[in-house]
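Lab notebook, bench 4. The sequencing result for the construct came back, and we need a structural model before the next group meeting so we can plan mutations. Quick request posted to the team channel:

Model the 3D structure of this chain.
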Amino acid sequence: MVKSHFFIVGLLFLQFSANAQNKIKVACIGASITYGARIDNREQNSYPAQLQKMLGNNYEVTNYGVSGTTLLKKGNSPYWKTNEYKTALAANPGVVVIDLGGNDSKLINRIYLEDYERDYHEFIQSFTQLPSHPRIVLLLAMPSFVKDTADIWDPTIVKQVNPRIQQVAFEDKVEVIDMHSPFVDKEAITPDKIHPNKEGATIMAQTIFENIAQKKDIAFNIFHNLKTEYKLSSFYGYECADFKFNGRECKVAKPKWSAPGHPWVWRARFWGHEPQTDISLLQRGFHIVYCDVAELLGNDTAINAWNKYYGLLHNAGLNKKAVMEGMSRGAVYVFNWAAVNTSKVACVYVDNPLLNIPSWAKGRMKTPTVKDYMFEAFKKDYNITTDEQVVGFNGSPVDKVKQIVKGKYPILILCADEDEAVSPEENTLLFEKRVKALNGNITVIHKPGFKHHPHSLPNPKPITDFILKGTGQYLQIPENN
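Done. Here's the predicted structure in token form:
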């Protein structure tokens, strides 16, 4: 009986040991935000602790945060010199999440920022050369709301630190997560203007959970399938192929790994303008694409060019259905193409959209002596020669609602209520009314007090969530009890 008891205990011990060895080790490297400074019961409520609960028993998350530390070797408190750095290396982790950069923005450390990229490359290499060859995930530094320019200073983070992190991610081909945009409107949950509270730590943990838990197609590389010469550039830390297709300038920004089904966003106009939504989707495995048909305003030539470009991308492996994204007049391109390609659209997001061309053109007609290149392009695009043709033009998205609604895809409009360039009443509100009359799926987010610019939202979460749900890519976050 005693022998049997010891035998069972031995088996349980071996099973426990095997389970412990099979766990994926996640090393959370960082300074005070990682450590959980200023958070009550940080051992349970810091972001690494919450991440552990979300990931479950198959993972072993360790908090290696050390308050006040810098990525810079010449910084006032280099992380390099800490015992936690040595311990993290010795742990041979499978995933390394690095959040170092906020303290590097302090005045005392700014003079060494020219060394930041070099030091970061070396820091990453110290982990990638481990036997585990871990995944490396860099976090952009969070916003600082302090007013003391000598302290952790947000303008330095935005203009000097985070762009360097993105460049390192591009050159080292490692993953990068934007932690600045999700907190740019969250001053209320950073009590001391620097450190997020428990709620903020939850947001961090959820964002990193998405990155780790999301199913990934790491083998897919659309660049290999394009079968065309391209020039490689960095799009906020992601590889971007710039090339010509049928004589038109095109771009494809590639995620570090592709989400299942290879989802993608088709940016209609103004590549790189207010890119926070595109960046948040890149980090979730979406491709972002562009084909320059400016300034054809969604005419037959533009639609035919896009049809061919769509064929190139779909044949290269992207999903049958695209997410269409259009800012301002980009909405005309989006909906005019979508109206004749209803089965190829997953969802549509447009922003302060031009949806009713005559409503805009009438304003140009009131100042005939003022040369307006876009108005002239519009008339040329549609072979218009008289004012009567302008007023009677019926090729706008508001005229194609019946075809658009047939697609049954969800539509999101961001609408600045005081838009001086595109009348909300004659564009968004008219379009919304007609879509709803045909039982179409449309949501309008109003921006009271805003004019035509800026587009998007500083924190793009509502837009990102809409697109994730519209493409079936939304990941349910486990309850963190």
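DSSP finds 19 helices and 14 strands in the chain.
Will bring this to the meeting.
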